[in-house]
Design brief:
The chain has 14 helices and twelve strands. The protein has helices at about 15-20, 25-30, 45-55, 70-80, 95-105, 120-130, 145-150, 175-185, 235-245, 255-265, 265-285, 305-310, 330-335, 380-395; strands at about 85-90, 110-115, 135-140, 155-165, 190, 210-215, 230, 290-295, 315-320, 340, 350-355, 370-375. The chain has a seven-stranded mixed sheet with strand order 1-7-6-5-4-2-3, with helices on both faces. α11 packs parallel to α14. The N and C termini lie far apart (about 70 Å). Bound molecules: pyridoxal-5'-phosphate. Pyridoxal-5'-phosphate binds near residues 95, 163, 192 and 194.
Length: about 400
């Protein structure tokens, strides 16, 4: 039995796959990372060659919108994160990825089930744009189990949306159970897996048909690009690709190269984000002014048992609630901070904070002030000091 490392003939471990995925010699020509091929037009030597390119499957130079080896390498690398996926489509933002995947399976008359914990632009798309186009939708409690969700299916239900943990409120869903119930009913599932980055949770092996992530977050990792991806099973990939092409969805080679650079370090960065976030979350949980920490790895988070069952790790995004509230609490807490900067998005190397006011249709609003933090790659001791000072600023004066 070998004791000095893995058998090189075994499938590579995930960390090793991160270093190797997408590096086909015919795309890189021996260079470690694929060159940035900026392209709209491809020219052909003959009409026959031109016609063959038009008929070829995706990974063949045809016209810029279908990509070049730069985009293909990124897409192939992302497919490697979701075992069982047949391929990955790239989109200019996470929102474009979600909208396209939804339109790939819904027609006028279709019905969508949307978790109450969905990212707000997802909810707006489903309850606004999609409804305006004749697609019905109902909002469901994200903590429902498989039996509960099955009761909500109707003959028109075409799509079950999943997002775990939920945006701002961090409920962990029973993704394997809900996906199995949907598959049994002939309902397609689309998981927003941005929090886990398809690294600490994998949606296709859990039974989902399409798995989306905002590459803007952890794959990009440096707050300098917007991009989204959807990986799909062999059954769903053709219609997803058709819809993406019909809507003209594509990304620039420059951004694809940046995203691929982020991809190579996803494992080490996420491990650090996760460790620091847990340290900060555990510290917050001990502060008297903090009533609840919504971090999936802590028992105070709804769905924590599912997190323990399904996830192999965590990431750097969570929320917490305070015992105090008021119109000026957010400004007093956040404005003077040193290391946490006020800003939307997350997943970058820099820590961010936002006052979190989740817009929920089923759940009541939280009682106290709530903040969402994205823990970056700074020393967690500095982040804790920043939060300690912020808690001091909003603590009620001690009574004499
Ligand atoms: C940010 C985000 C998106 C959208 O991604 P963009 O790349 O910003 O369009 C989708 N889902 C979740 C959960 C997000 O946090």
């Amino acid at each position: 039995m070998p004791t000095d490392g893995r058998d090189p003939h075994l499938p590579p471990s995930p960390e090793t796959a991160l270093a190797a995925a997408g590096r086909r010699p015919e795309w890189t020509h021996g260079i470690v990372s694929p060159p940035v091929y900026r392209a709209s037009t491809v020219v052909y030597a003959s009409v026959a060659e031109m016609e063959a390119a038009a008929r070829a499957p995706d990974v063949r130079l045809y016209y810029g919108r279908r990509g070049t080896p730069t985009q293909w390498a990124l897409a192939e690398a992302l497919t490697a994160l979701e075992p069982g996926a047949a391929g990955t489509l790239l989109f200019p933002s996470g929102v474009a990825a979600l909208a396209t995947a939804i339109l790939a399976v819904c027609r006028p008359g279709s019905h969508i089930l949307l978790p109450d914990s969905a990212y707000e632009p997802t909810a707006s798309f489903v309850l606004g744009f999609a409804r305006d186009h004749g697609i019905a939708a109902d909002v469901y409690d994200p903590l429902l189990d498989a039996e509960g969700i099955a009761r909500l299916f109707c003959p028109e239900t075409a799509l079950l949306l999943l997002e775990s943990p939920g945006s701002m409120t961090f409920e962990v869903q029973d993704v394997p159970g809900l996906a199995a119930a949907a598959r049994a009913a002939g309902v397609t599932t689309l998981l927003d897996n941005s929090w886990a980055a398809s690294w600490v949770f994998k949606g296709i092996p859990a039974g989902c048909d399409m798995v989306m992530q905002s590459l803007t977050k952890y794959v990009g990792g440096h707050s300098d690009l917007l991009m989204g991806a959807v990986s799909a099973t062999p059954a769903l990939l053709p219609q997803l690709r058709r819809t993406a092409h019909a809507l003209g969805q594509c990304v620039s080679a420059d951004d694809a190269a940046l995203a691929l650079r982020g991809y190579r370090t996803l494992g080490v960065r996420l491990a650090r984000h996760a460790a620091s976030a847990l340290a900060v979350a555990r510290w917050l949980a001990e502060q008297p002014l903090v009533t609840r920490v919504l971090h999936p790895a802590l028992p105070s988070c709804p769905g924590h048992a599912r997190f323990l069952r399904d996830f192999t790790g965590s990431s750097g995004l969570f929320a917490f609630e305070l015992a105090v509230d008021g119109p000026d609490i957010a400004a007093r807490f956040c404005d003077p901070m040193h290391h946490f900067r006020l800003g939307y998005s997350w997943g970058g190397f820099e820590s961010l904070i936002v006052p979190a006011r989740p817009h929920r249709r089923l759940a009541p609003p939280p009682a106290g002030a709530r903040f969402r933090v994205s823990i970056g790659l700074e020393d967690p001791a500095d982040l804790i000091a920043d939060l300690a000072a912020a808690l001091d600023r909003v603590s009620p004066p001690a009574s004499a």
